[in-house]
Amino acid sequence: SMFANQILSVSNYCKKNLPPMLNKKIRVIKNFFSHDLIKKSEITNKKIIAYVANYKQQKRPELFFKIANEVFNSNIKNINFYIFGTYSNNDKNKLLRLINKESCKNKISFMGLKFPMGPWIRKSTLTLSLGKNEGFGRVLIESMLNKSLVIATSGGAHEEIIKNGHNGIIVNGLDPKDISKKILFYLENQKKMKKIIDRAFSYSKKNFITLNTSKEIEDLYCDIL
User: Fold this and answer.
1) Secondary-structure breakdown of the chain: helix, strand, coil percentages, each rounded to the nearest 5
2) Contact 129, 153 (CB under 8 A)
C-alpha cells in the first residue's frame, strides 16, 4: 500500500484503521447498488426476522440465537427466523442448543446461500446485522432498499449508515435481551416501524442508487494516468 498512487476505502471506519501516513492517498468511495434492487414489498402474514451472515465469530451467530431464544419467550406468535449463509451440520446443532423450547427450533430455518438476496429480504419484516466492527455492511443497504427494518449493532461502519431511530435501529451487541425488546417493540408498533422503513428507503435510494460511484472510480484512474 505504501507504493500505491491511490487507495480506495469503502467507509471512513476502514480509512481510520489504515496507517495515518497513508491518509493523503486514501479516497472513500462507498458501495453502490443497482436500480433493479428496488421492488414493491411482498405481503405476508408471517413475521420473518432475517440474518445474513456466514458462520464466523465476527458475525456473532451465537448472539442471533440468544436473541431468538428471548423472542420466543414473548407473547407474539408466528415469528420465524431465516438464516442466510454457510453453516455446517455441527454449526447448526451447536447453535440450536441455545434455544430452550424444543418446539421453537422448527421456527428457525437455515436457508443456505441465496443470490440475489433482494427477493428474500423483501419477505422479511426486519433484518438483524450483528457483525462486530463491520467495514461497511451491504446487507443494511439491501434491507433498506427492500423495505425491511434494519436493526444493527453499534461500532464499525454501521453508524455511518444508520441514524438511530431515523432510518434504522442501533443496538448494543452485548445485550440479547435489550435487542429482543427492540424487536418486539417494533413488531407491536407497526406505524413507527413503517416510518423508519420509509425514511430508510428514501435515504438508501438517494445515497446508494447512483452511477456516480463508477464515474468517481473512472476519474480516479484518469487522475493517476
Assistant:
1) 45, 15, 35
2) yes
